[in-house]
Fold:
Amino acid sequence: MRNVKTDSKLIWKLIRDVKTMVIAKLTVFFLK
Structure:
């Protein structure tokens, strides 16, 4: 349980990346 801070940072980065990807896909989908 030493690097919980690092883990949460990685998790937040992952969530942000996924969110960006989903938004990009939705944008492409709606622009078609």
In short: The first helix runs from residue 4 to 31. Helices lie at 4-31. Residues 1-32 form one domain.
